[in-house]
Amino acid sequence: DVKPEPHDEL
Amino acid sequence: MNIFRLTADMTHLMSVIVLLLKIHTIKSCAGISLKTQELYAIVFTCRYLDIFTDFISFYNTIMKVIFLWTSFSIVWYMRYHKIVRRSYDKDQDTFRHVFLMLPCLVLALLINERFTFKEVMWTFSFYLEAVAILPQLVLLQRTRNIDNLTGQYIFLLGAYRALYILNWIYRYVTEPNYVHWIPWMSGLVQTLLYGDFFYYYFLSWKNNVKLQLPA
After folding, report:
1. Where are the domains of chain B?
2. What are the transmembrane regions (chain B) (predicted)?
3. C-alpha distance from A3 to closest chain B C-alpha (Å)
4. CB B9 to CB A7 under 8 A?
């Protein structure tokens, strides 16, 4: 399964 | 990264610096709600669980460390520093913040983007941050004299989220299928909660009078 993209905001 | 988000993060950083300056230089936390500070420490802890697993950029990691370190330092100062703690008004700062945390946790378990521990904690941190300012606003209503640093701190803390909304609009417009309803709705509620504070803060600035919230 594709790894969801991490949250890039603080 | 866009100018709205960078300005927002710098505004957020400024709010923390203003508060730390107040506490560290005049050794006073008068008018500051420990409950709100504790909620913010929880918000950052739950939101930055990925600090060691997902490297986004140096900026992202450094800012996470700064927010975690400063939020826990402020709580430590207000709880344990022998001089600062004397100016903490615990009789007025009585908001039961556990009543804020439980509904946010339940909501995060029900409404989230992915049902994983880190994602639910991340979602919980957004719902909690939206209401974290409430104990501070209640304390402001009760304490009549709001000193300038406290007023500036709250103004900056509210302004950072308003700037994030501009960032989210900008990203929605410029990035294909960038949609994150959870931060958007939480951020909107958070900013609206500052509404009347912004109004009275603007009046005090325009009329050049001391900031007073109506009882």
Report:
1. 3-204
2. 55-77, 98-115, 121-140, 152-170, 182-202
3. 11
4. no
